[in-house]
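Troubleshooting log. The previous structure file for this entry was overwritten by mistake, so regenerating from the original sequence record. Sequence copied from the archived sheet and checked twice against the printout by T.R.
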Amino acid sequence: MLDQLKNNWQKDMLSGFIVSLIALPLSLGIAGACGFPPIMGVLTAIVGGIIVSFFMGCELTIKGPAAGLIVIVYGAADEFSKSSGGDSVMGWKLALGVIVVAGAIQIILGLLKVAAVVEFFPLSAVHGMLAAIGIIIISKQIHFADGYDPSLIKGKEPLELLKMLPESLGHFTPQIALIGGVSLLILFGMPLIKNRIIKMIPPALVVLVVSVILGQFENLGGKEFASLKPLVNPGDLFNDFGVKVDFSGISGATTIIFIKYLILFVMIGSLESLLSSKAIDLLDPQHRKSNLNKDLTAVGIGNMVSGIFGGLPMISEIARSSANINNGGRTRWANFFHGAFLLIFVAVLVPFIKLVPVASLAAMLIFVGYRLAAPKEFIKTYKVGPEQLIVFVGTVIVTISTDLLIGIFSGIVIEWLIHFLYGVPFKDYFRPDLTVEKKDNELYKVTLKGSGLFSNFIFVHKRLVKIEKQKNIEFDVTDVRLLDHTFLEKLHHFASDYEQDGGKFTFTGMDHLSTLSTHPLGARLSAKSVKELL
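Regenerated output below.
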């Protein structure tokens, strides 16, 4: 690591500084939306940068709190609060207990090298879950952005919050709605400006400065708006620093709540983090491959430290990681510098942070939610295949109507039902008929029979990674009934990685498979099966 620092410190420091400017307002907003003291979001990013950088298995990812976990974290704090007689502080501390235990489990999972479990989930269900999270975030934050009375939305479910939008928009507070509206205009408008210099300025930073100026100009701290709590009370990281976690939620009446959110934190947090790391690998100019098991352990370490002192769960955050690459980050030291600069900001900018209106933070989260659930996500999924849109939309609807755990599993069930309609026998769902034969010193023939599905790719992947590097792999699908989209995309990524390492990967027997869309990685069904369906 010291050689990396010596050779790249200038580029990594510059990128870390720029990313920290993006991370500061987002970390405050995410923590506030979770029901945590806003400063604890910055604490999470500081831990993710300064501590986790020494353990992570990905060179370019930025670790910190993520909007995708807001629904889970808020749900945990809220349910624990209700079980504690409405004590929000106790709800926060009990939620921290779940975060710490989840972090310990992530460490164990990483050491056991089970990060490949990320390969199990169908991609459209994962994207549907993220879109649902985006809609849920918007459904709540829009009420804060327009100054609607927060007491009227407290404890409401996503569908209830969505139904209240006409009422909220019709009874907004003009001064607060102005800040929310201007913030949204900046966030959506700045990316459309083509000027190179303007594109270098983080829109969230502009929102931070403009909203503070507007807030002071309109005197939103006055008595007239005191009941709406328009200004952030971030807390003081240094004065309030200490152990905050409470593990009493493990036993007694809250045990079921603890187990429920433990599963969600481990599953969704790990899944989102690992998927982000894999996505960043594709953007790495040096084509480095992450050690996902090591990275999962590093995230677990970060979650344990963050949770003990009052912070949120962290992941490898995709937007900040992409910004790191775009701004010239070269090594893990960019993540370290991002955490170090945030620590400096907390030390000197708390008086400024206290002036940040809630409406501007809500606008930032609405923008994040929109990116997760943008119409283009639905269109993109449809282009992959109509059946993938069914999985995507089904996951969105069930997630919004119930919760994340039921939502993601509903996506899995919908995908399996589609496979059933395509005539795939149950025996193929988890363990396909696969043979690996070494033809000579240079050629391996891999023959797949039955079907290649999202749920059996783990088995296929385990066999493929055992093949020697820098050889020729011939993947024969002559006797295949169905290759689903997730299987094809993940196999495509494996083939790309294998060829980058000096090998060659080719498909044979694809001619008898009919494509179900124009997408190059859309599902493919045998001509015989198509006739049977017709």
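The mean pLDDT is 87. Archived copy saved in two places this time.
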